[in-house]
Queue: 3 jobs
Job 1
Amino acid sequence: MSAVRVNYATGQLGKTIGARLVYGTDLLEGIEQLCAENKIEYATIISCFGSFQKSGFVYLVPNDASIIGVGYNDLVVKEGPIEFLQGTGVICKREGEYETHFHGTMCDQKGNIFGGHFIKGKNPVITVDLVLAEVTGMEFQRKFDSETGANQFYPVEKDATEPKRIEK
């Protein structure tokens, strides 16, 4: 059996918001503004799909200079129209500012499927339908992780300084 190592926190879901991001709105900027307007600090994306004018994203590639042997490629920009098949993510904070960690899949006009880690400011929508749920009782942070050499998801319960851990 392989080792099991998990960092985690427990909390609850709070208010749920259904929204449509309209033409020209950047996907991640729109999600973050929706959270700010509704006083939501941390959230999870329940459902997200639609279409983009264009899309900017990265994906993992081998990288010998990385601690773990992988890293992100250079920014890929696909011109649209692009069908946005589905996306998921967590609305986090890093140093007090929103930093949404979001991945999704898309297809071009020929049906070619692609996707990856979306970059803020690079995904103007044609239209996107979105349902998100507030997370309460815990914080979703993005922090530097020395094991991977990159910023990672760091969930901690409210008023805790470290996540709960499983190491078996």
Note: Residues 28 and 120 are 5 Å apart (CA to CA).
Job 2
Amino acid sequence: MTTAGIQQRYLQVTPSGAYYATVNSQPDDARALLLQLMSSETPIEHSMDIFAELADLDKEHAAVLFNRLIARRFLALVQVPKEPRQGSLESTLTDLLVTLSATGKVVLGDDQGFCLGSAGFDRDHADALAALAADLISLHQRHQSLLNKELQLMGESWGLLDPVGNSMLGTWIIHIGSQSFAVIIHGQPNLNQHEFVELISALASRYLDQ
């Protein structure tokens, strides 16, 4: 895809792009650019000059990165951008989290076991699940050489499965800069929603530069 005639559109990270940006902590130009876009407080209009500046690349290499992100549907160009959600992280978490599960039951925890927010679970269960997820983050870190390098398994998700392989409770580990978080989802996940992008945007705005 070329960039001719698209100067009036805006850069919009897709749910797939948000997932890719946070799926692991390995340095990557694409991940860095996607996280930077999601941490912006205002929509960013597309031009190759702006894109190259954000990516910290010359125009030739920026164009290659841009076309790759568009082709993989990690990035879209839209005429009407979705405005970043206003308000503090704490005030928006419940509304975002509840959309990510078919049952409305979701917990967000950090790598220290602290529950940042939840929907659908009572407080005691949410705190306990956040602590469990921190153990899973630590477990994956200890074995990531085998899983991600030797076996080349992309992703850091863990699940409690039923006898036919459906997830009853899934844990998605996400990375924002040097910080790790876990999204614990009961039942069928809905990570293909824009609310997932909004969740990553809210976390990136708070933690990306820390």
Note: The helical segments are 15-22, 29-38, 48-55, 59-71, 89-97, 123-150, 194-207.
Job 3
Amino acid sequence: MTHGDDEATKAVNTPRSVLLVSSAEELAARCRGMCLRARVMLLVESDLAALTNTAVERKPLALLFPDDIYAFDSAEFDALARDIQASVVTLEPGITDEVIEARLADALLRAEVLRQPEPTSSRYVLVPDGPRRAKRR
């Protein structure tokens, strides 16, 4: 097995997960229910101190941040999300479950598109339709 095969196996065996950066139990409980409905297998909770290590280890599809935590260092959080091919979802105070679910669904879709493998090249090329030269005889 080559190293590339090992990485492909990990990607297939990694459960769909979301990482919530918050210590608010009420928010975590709301997000657990939404993740189940979005067919996310795992909601990982983290504090800021463990965020980077947890994100790199778990490779979640989305990073969920309350607005105040995200505002603390948004550029760094965005860079982390790019590095692990995840989407960032911010949650402002008073946000409704419907809005969280919509943002989560969009974030999951964006991250899954980012993680699609590059198409393998082919020796065949599509030739655009257009005027064709007459065959030589």
Note: The chain has six helices and four strands.
